[in-house]
Write a structure and sequence with these properties.
Its EC number is 2.7.1.49, 2.7.4.7. The protein is of the alpha/beta class. It has 8 helices and 9 strands. It has one domain: UDP-N-acetylmuramoyl-L-alanine:D-glutamate ligase. The chain is 36% helix and 22% strand. The radius of gyration is 17 Å and the shape is globular. The two termini are 25 Å apart.
C-alpha cells in the first residue's frame, strides 16, 4: 500500500559533522523505525570544536521543498529545528498552515545549552506568536524557557510557571528541559506539562561528558517518531527521555572536543 510506512520530516539546518540538526534528526528517525525526510533551512560548517560558518536557504527554495514533499508523501509527524531568522520562521509557519504534516514538535533552537542566544528579538517573538500556536509539543531547554517565558528559572516552581507561560502562547504540550551543570549535579529533571494540565517530572541521572551534541535533536526526534506511530505525548516524551539518557551515558568517541551522543541507543 502506497505511503503505508510511517513517514516524518524535520524542518531544520544541516550540521556538516552530522552531530546535530537535520543529520541527528534523520539518524534518530532511522533508529526509531520511521522514514525520515528533511526540509533544509540552513547549512552549518562545523565540527566538534565549534561552528566556523553558516548559510541560510532562500525562501523560494524552502517553499518548493514543502511543496515537493506534500505532493508525494503522507507525513504523520514533523518537527522544526534551526530556523535561523524571522523571515524563515514566517515562511515555515505559512507552509505548515497549508500542508497536512500531522503532529508538530517545535524544538525552538533559540539558545544553546550554555545560554548563548542564537536568534534576534524579532525572531524570538515570531516563535512565540507564530510558531508555538501550531505546536503539538514544544521542547525548550532551560535558557529558551527563560527567554520564551520572560523570567528567570531557578526552582521547580519556576519551571512550572514558565511551562504554563509557554503553553499560553498556544503550544498544546510543553516539555521544559531541566538545567545541566557540573556542580555536583546528580540528575536532570524535565517537566512535561500536558494539554489537560497534568504535570509529569521526567528524571534521569546527570552524565558529566562533553559528548552532548544533538541531545535536543534526538529527544525531539524520538517524540516525533513515536507520535507518528500512534503514541500519546506522555508515552513519547517518557521514552524520549530514557533513550536520550542512554545515548549520552553510552558514549562513542567521535571528534576531539564536543562530540555527538550515541544515537544507536535510540533503537528498540
Amino acid at each position: 500500500m502506497v505511503n503505508e510506512f510511517p513517514q516524518v520530516v524535520t524542518i531544520a539546518g544541516n550540521d556538516s559533522d552530522g552531530s546535530a540538526g537535520g543529520p541527528a534528526d534523520l539518524h534518530t528517525f532511522f533508529a526509531r523505525n520511521t522514514y525520515g525526510m528533511m526540509i533544509l533551512t540552513a547549512a552549518v560548517a562545523g565540527n566538534s570544536y565549534g561552528i566556523q560558518d553558516q548559510r541560510t536557504m532562500d525562501l523560494p527554495f524552502i517553499n518548493q521543498q514543502f511543496k515537493s514533499i506534500a505532493d508525494d508523501f503522507d507525513i504523520k509527524a514533523a518537527k522544526t529545528g534551526m530556523l535561523a531568522d524571522q523571515p524563515i520562521i514566517q515562511t515555515v509557519v505559512d507552509n505548515l498552515k497549508q500542508v497536512s504534516f500531522g503532529a508538530l514538535v517545535v524544538d525552538p533552537v533559540i539558545s544553546t545549552k550554555h545560554g548563548a542566544t542564537l536568534l534576534e528579538l524579532d525572531a524570538i517573538q515570531a516563535v512565540q506568536n507564530e510558531l508555538l500556536p501550531l505546536a503539538t509539543v514544544t521542547t525548550p531547554n532551560i535558557y529558551e524557557g527563560e527567554l520564551l517565558a520572560d523570567m528567570s528559572i531557578e526552582t521547580s516552581d519556576d519551571m512550572e510557571t514558565a511551562a504554563q507561560k509557554i503553553q499560553s502562547f498556544g503550544a498544546k504540550n510543553v516539555l521544559l528541559k531541566g538545567r545541566h551543570s557540573e556542580d555536583d549535579q546528580q540528575e536532570v529533571r524535565d517537566l512535561l506539562l500536558l494539554e489537560n494540565g497534568e504535570k509529569h517530572w521526567l528524571t534521569a541521572p546527570y552524565v558529566p561528558t562533553t559528548h552532548i551534541n544533538g541531545t535536543g535533536d534526538t529527544l525531539s526526534s524520538v517524540i516525533v517518531s513515536e507520535l507518528a506511530k500512534g503514541a500519546t505525548v506522555l508515552e513519547a516524551a517518557t521514552l524520549a527521555k530514557e533513550l536520550t539518557y542512554q545515548a549520552i551515558a553510552n558514549t562513542i568517541e567521535v571528534g576531539h572536543q564536543f562530540g555527538p551522543i550515541n544515537i544507536w541507543q535510540a533503537q528498540d
